[in-house]
Each structure stands twice: as C-alpha cells, then as structure tokens.
Write a structure and sequence with these properties.
With about 200 residues, the protein is mainly α. About 50% of the residues lie in helices and about 10% in strands.
C-alpha cells in the first residue's frame, strides 16, 4: 500500500502574502474524490483552508488507500499519537468528520468512521465563554462615538471615529466574523443597490 497515494501540498509563492495550497492527484482512480475535496476546501476561509488541508494531508498520509474502510480505532490512534491538547484533537476530529460527510454527500463513500468516536475521547475540553455585551451598551457606545465624531475638529480623528462607528454597526447589524470584516474592500459596497458582498463562511 502506498501511503502517499493522495497528498495535500502547500506551495508558497514569494510574490504572495498568503500560501497557495492545492491537492495533488497521484492516483487517477481517485480523481473524483480529490476534485470533490478541492471544491469543498475552496468554500472555506484562507485560514480554515490551511488548517483543513494540513489535517487532511496528514490523515491521508496515514491511511492511504484505506480511506474508505478505515476503522475508528485507527483515527483515534492517529490523533492520540500527535500528543495534542483536547481542543486541538477535537478540531482534527471535526475536520475528518466533515471530510467524510462531504464524500458521502457526493456519493464517493457510504460510511463516516468518525461518527463512532465520542467527542470527549481525547479529554474534556474546557472553554471559557465570553458573556454577550448587552444591546443597550452597544447602542450607547455607538451613539457616544457618533457624538464625538460630529464635534471633532481634527479631520483625521473625525474620520477615524466615523470608521469605528461603521465597524461597530457592521458587526452588530450583520453579525460578521472579524475575518469577514477585515476582508471587506471598497468594491464590496454597492451603495446604489444597498448591497454588501461578504466573503467568508
């Protein structure tokens, strides 16, 4: 068995800030699977793509042609051998689960071995959840910023204050993720149509 039947490679182009990654096909019989995974990964944000591709590359390097018949115990051993914390282990498990779900949806396999693995198999995940900021506090903050911006004499500071107001309004009204907000370009705003194009999940 050739464990390197499929491989996800990362090719860094010097002229680009971000890494351009792609799935390289080694076995023509599995072309549909690779094409499916390529399409699926393109729907993710660049950060998520990098994370998912690395995990999938490692996993396919481990199971090779056994991807369709691998048992849950193999996946558990593969993740456990990396000595990760519970959160990182759970993230890898979620990535592989999603990969199999996509293959099932596209009729490329009939089983997802990850569903038999309990989410707490690698230890309890302790997450500290931040409490939501009350809506009245957010509205009050925006109103204060707008008032300061209106009274500000210095042009640069006035622009900065109105920018902050716009950021808060976008986050509040559209529920954007930080990545989605920071990725917005001027061309994404179609003022005449009242449309904003969001690139993200």
């Amino acid at each position: 068995m050739n464990k390197n039947t499929y491989q996800v490679v990362e090719v860094e182009k010097v002229s680009q800030v971000q890494v351009n990654q792609d799935i390289v096909l080694y076995d023509k019989q599995e072309e549909k699977m690779v094409a499916c995974l390529r399409t699926w990964l393109k729907t993710k944000s660049p950060h998520t793509q990098r994370s998912y591709r690395k995990t999938i590359n490692d996993y396919l390097g481990k199971v090779g042609k056994m991807i369709y018949v691998v048992e849950p115990a193999i996946i558990i051993d593969w993740i456990s051998s990396q000595e990760l914390n519970p959160s990182s282990s759970a993230l890898k498990l979620t990535t592989i689960r999603s990969m199999y779900d996509v293959l099932i949806i596209n009729s490329l396999t009939t089983r997802n071995p990850v569903v038999a693995i309990k989410s707490n198999s690698f230890g309890k995940i302790h997450k500290k959840h931040h409490g939501a900021v009350p809506l009245n506090e957010i509205i009050s903050t925006i109103a204060n910023l707008e008032a300061r911006a209106s009274l500000e004499i210095k042009k640069k500071l006035k622009v900065k204050l109105f920018r902050d107001v716009s950021i808060l309004r976008l986050l509040l009204n559209l529920g954007l993720r930080c990545f989605e907000l920071s990725s917005l370009k001027v061309k994404d705003f179609k003022e005449n149509q009242g449309i904003i194009t969001i690139n993200g999940k």
